[in-house]
Amino acid sequence: MSEAADFHLEDANGGKVAVLTGDWTAVKMGQAPDRLIDALRKSPKIQIDLSKIGRCDTSGAWSVLRAAKDEAHPDRIAASPEIKRLFELVSHAREAEPTPEPNQKTPYAFFDRVGRAVVDIWENVFDTMVFNGHLLVATGRAISDPRRIRWAAVFAIAERAGLDAMPIVAATTFFIGAVVGLLGANLLAQFGAQVFAVELIGVAVLREFSILITALLLAGRSASAFAAEIGAMKMNQEIDAMRVLGVDPFDALVFPRFLALLLTIPLLVFIAAIAGLVGGLIVSITVLGLSPTAFFQRLIDNVGVTPFWIGLSKAPVMAVVIAAIGCRQGMAVGGDVLSLGRRVTAAVVQAIFSAIMIDSVFALIYMKLNL
Questions:
Q1: Quick one: average pLDDT of 43-60?
Q2: Residue 2 confidence (pLDDT)
Q3: What rounded mean pLDDT belongs to the chain?
Q4: Which of 85, 120, 125, 307 could bond to 207 as cystine, CB 3.0-4.6 Å?
Q5: Poorest-confidence range of 12-16, 108-112, 215-219?
Q6: What is the average pLDDT across 325-333?
């Protein structure tokens, strides 16, 4: 049974020796180090005998060295070779200079952070190009030999990442359509043209909000899921095991997610468009007093299907970008949980930013084409 740390003084060779007993550990030391310091201050030439102690850890070694600190007697500790190695280790740690804290307020620190950020940007650009090249090769292999496609994984991911998102996509675009209709009716009522709110609802929902809301929801839902799933496999070394077995992770993990999102996003855009129009229809009936027949007749006559096809044309690009960002961040996860959290966050932020930027680029292109 372990005993608490203690010591007693003995006479030896015309002097005194402090014989340490018990366990000199962080749990068992108690007040023994303070009493040892007081005893050594009264008699600086007291030798220290550690041959009778039970256990000793770094806390105990540090306490003894702190008590025995005396330049006139640097070698007055007697102990076994194992204890001496521990004391040498702790002694070097005590003598080492503390790591200076960098001054973050200096101009050098500011330019250092800016430089590191620029280097990180170029590294991310390079890694993204490498990832896209590998994904392109995997896509080419799948097109040349469709038997390589893991259809079971594709359909499972399509259900989980795409079809399960139908309720939230429909609910969100429903309220977006209702808000657009309400704002349009109130604004156009100042000019006596509130009936044109139907055209506003049709163009806004079919052309922009159906694809944009769908892409943003998939960016927060599917991109994070892809990064977390692949990142967890990376942390557990499952991806390394796949490479050892001769299985390309891009064929088994990345391409099925890419194809699943590519197949499901047009359906989600269609559902979002229908839900948004229904929301605008309800507002038109309650606020403008239009009948459903008049609402849809104005949509057919003045809006048509062109805005819907314009919005749907953005869907494949959105799917490719969102899936690629989520999978790329997952493949870049390190071996710790902190890296996983950073990569999942980066996947969501980059996917949302990319979706908004792509929608803006498409809007400019279609405006130049007068569409």
A1: 77
A2: 63
A3: 83
A4: 307
A5: 12-16
A6: 88
| Structure tokens, 190 | 């100042």
Nearest CA to 87 among 61, 49, 67?
Answer: 61
Reference 324, options 217, 209, 219; nearest CA is 219
H and E: helices and strands count for the chain: 16, 5
Partners of 47 in the β-ladder:
17
User: In 10 A of CB 115, how many CB atoms?
Assistant: 10
Architecture of domain 6-95: 2-Layer Sandwich (3.30)
The rounded distance, in Å, linking the Cα atoms of 344 and 337 is: 11
Residue of 222, 223, 369 lying closest to 309 (CA atoms) = 369
Asked if the model's pLDDT at residue 181 lies above 70, the reply is yes
Q: Where do the CATH 3.30.750.24 domains begin and end in the chain? A: 6-95
Q: Phi and psi dihedrals of 290, rounded to 5?
A: -80, 150
For residue 167, give the amino acid letter: P
- Judged against a pLDDT cut of 90, whether residue 135 lies above it is answered with no
* 55 phi and psi angles, rounded to 5 deg: -125, 155
- Provide mean pLDDT across the span 214-231: 90
Model pLDDT, residue 102: 58
Closest CA to 3 of 21, 30, 15: 21
Nearest 5°: the CA angle 231, 234, 238 is 130
Token pair in block for residue 178: 């209702």
How many angstroms separate the CA atoms of 179 and 192, rounded?
Answer: 19
The DSSP secondary structure of 51-114, one letter per residue, reads: TTEEEE-HHHHHHHHHHT--TT-TT-EE--HHHHHHHHHHHHHHHSPPPPPP-TTSHHHHHHHH
DSSP string, 257-284: HHHHHHHHHHHHHHHHHHHHHHHHHHHI
pTM of the full predicted structure? 0.67
CA distance 64 to 58: 10
- Rounded to 10°, the helix 337-368/306-313 angle is 140
% of the chain exceeding 70 in pLDDT: 92
Task: Please indicate whether residue 106 or residue 364 has the higher confidence score (pLDDT).
Answer: 364
Which residues fall within 8 angstroms of residue 319, CB to CB, at 6 or more apart? 218, 258, 261, 262, 264, 265
Q: Spell out a b/e string for 119-131, using b for 16 or more CB atoms within 10 Å of the CB, else e.
A: eeeeeeeeeeeeb
User: Which tokens go with 363?
Assistant: 């809007």
